[in-house]
Amino acid sequence: MSVSTFGNGNSRSLDRLLPLVLLPVAVMALGPVVRLLLEGIGFGEGFTTDHLRTVLGRDSTRTALIHSLLTAGGGTVLSVLIGASFAFLVALTDIRAKGALVFCLMVPMMIPPQITALAWMQMTGPSSVLLKLLGLAPPLGSPQPLHSAGGIVLLLGIQHAALVFLTLRAGLRMIPADLVEAARMSGAGAVRVWAQIVLPLSMPALIAGGAMAFVTALGNFGIPAMLGIPAGYSTLPTLIYQRLVGMGPAVLPEVAVLALLIGAVAIAGVLLGRVMLSRQGFGLVGLSGTPLALSLGRARLPVEIALWAFIFAILALPLIALLATSLIPAYGVALSFDTATFKAWTEVLFVQPVTRRAYGNSLMLAVLAAAILMAVSLPLAWLMERRPSRLSRALDALIDLPYALPGVVLSIACILTFLKLPFTDLTLYGTIWIILMAYLARFFVVMLRPIQASLAQLDPAMEEAAASVGARLGRRLRTIVLPLAAPSAAAGAILVFLTAVNELTVSALLWSSGTETLGVVIYNLEDSGETVMASALAMSIVLLIVALMALVQISAKHFPKGVIPWQS
Fold first, then answer.
1. Regarding predicted confidence, which is higher, 119 or 50?
2. CA nearest 454: which of 325, 309, 561, 296?
3. Residues 43 and 61 in one domain
4. Which of 273, 417, 446, 555 has the most CB atoms around its CB within 10 Å?
5. Which domain holds residue 508?
6. Nearest one of 305, 288, 287 to 296, comparing CA atoms
C-alpha cells in the first residue's frame, strides 16, 4: 500500500498542508534573492540600466573585482592543497589518532573569520605579544605582513581547507577497496596506486570541494575586512560594506549591482565546477565495503609529526598569541608574570554593556534560528519525501541558493526586502529581526538536508500501518516520524547554532545600535584600537565554540552517521 492510498481524507489533508508549508518557505528563503535581482535590473524604475552602467564603469569596481578573484582564487588553491593532503592521508593511510586530527582541522572553519584574522595578526608583526615574549618581534614600525593580498590568501586558504577535506573524504569512501587491492597484488606501489587509480577517481570530489571553497572565499568578509581595509586593499564584499556604511540606504541600488556581480561570479564558479565534473564521472556505485588503509611503514611517524606540526602552526600558535594579547593590561605592553591580568576579560564579559548585549543577541539569534528552522524543516522534509510535486521539486532545487550565494549578497537582498514590508509602513531594517530573517534564509539548507537524508532512509510501512488502523496525519507525524527523525533534526540544529552564533558576513551590514552580534563587536573593537578587549572577547568565543564542538563529539553516538561533519 502506498502513501497515496491512505484515504481521501488523508490525501485532502496533505493537499491543504502542502501549500501552507511550501509557499512561506519559498518566500522566506527565495524572496530576498528575487528582490535583489529586481533591484539590480532597475525594476522599480522601468528596467533601467543606469545603475548597472554607472557601477560597472567605475575603476573601484573593477579593482575590487580583480582583487576578489585573485584572493578567492589563491585561497582556493591553498585550500585544495591543504584539504586534499589531509584527506588523502586520513582516508587512505594507517596514520593514528585520525579523529583528533580531523577535529582540529575543523576548528579553523568553525571559528569566525574575523577571529582567525585577529589571532594571526597577534602572532605576527612588531606588536605581537608572543613574539616579544620569545624575543623574536621585528623592530617597531615594521609593517604588519598580513596586511596584504598574500595575508588574505593565506588565511582564506586555511579557513576553508576543511570544506575541501570533507568533500574529498566523502568521495574517497566511494572508491572500491578491491580495485586498489587488485592493483597492489599486481605489484603497483603506493605512489602508483594513488596516481593512477585514487587520484583520477577522486577528481570529481576534489573539483566539487574546490568550487565550494572558491564561492565561500569570494563572499568572505571578515578576513578581507581585517587585513585588507587597513592596507587599502578592497574586495567586493568590503567595497559594499564601505559604501553602505558611508552613505547609508541611499546607495542601495548601487550596492545591489555590486551584490549581483558577486553572485554572478559565484554562480559562474559553480557552473564551471559542474562542467568539469560532467567530464570526470566514473559511475562509482556506493560506499566501499572495506576502508582503504595503505600502510606508510616507517614513514608513518614522520608523516604524523608533520601533520600535527601543521595543526600546531595554523591553530595552536595563533590562539596562543590571541590569549597572550588578552592577558596584557594595554596593547604594546610585554607579557610577564608581573603584567599578566584578566582585566580585559572582566571588562569585556561583565562590565561593557555592548559586549554583554552582543552575547545575548548572538545566542538568542542562534537559538531562534535553530528552533524555527527545525519546526519548519521537519514537516517540509516529510512532505517533500512523501508527497513530491512540481512545487516541492522546484523548491528543493532552489533552496541551496541563499546558502551558496556569498553572505554579503544575502544581506543586501534582505535590506531591500525588509526595508519596507509590502502593503504596510513597517520596516525590519535597523531591528534584530532582519538579522533573524537573514539567518533563516541562510541556514535553511543546513537544517533541511540532514532531515531529508534521514527521512529518505525510513520505510513508509510503519506510517502506512498506522494509517490503516485509523491514525490521523497529525498523530502519525507526532508518534512515528518525529521520534525517528529527531536525531537528524537535533544534529542539524546544532550545526545551525554553531554557524549562526559566530556569524559576521551577513550581520555586518544588518546590525544597528542595540542589535550588535559577537562578530560585529569584535570587528568594531579592533577597528577602534581596542585590540586587547577584542582579543579577550574573541578568545571567549573560541572557547565557547570548541566546548560546543566537544559536546557534539561526546554526543555523536546518538546521531545518525554522517550528520556530524568531522565524524567518520
1. 119
2. 561
3. no
4. 417
5. 1-47+359-556
6. 305
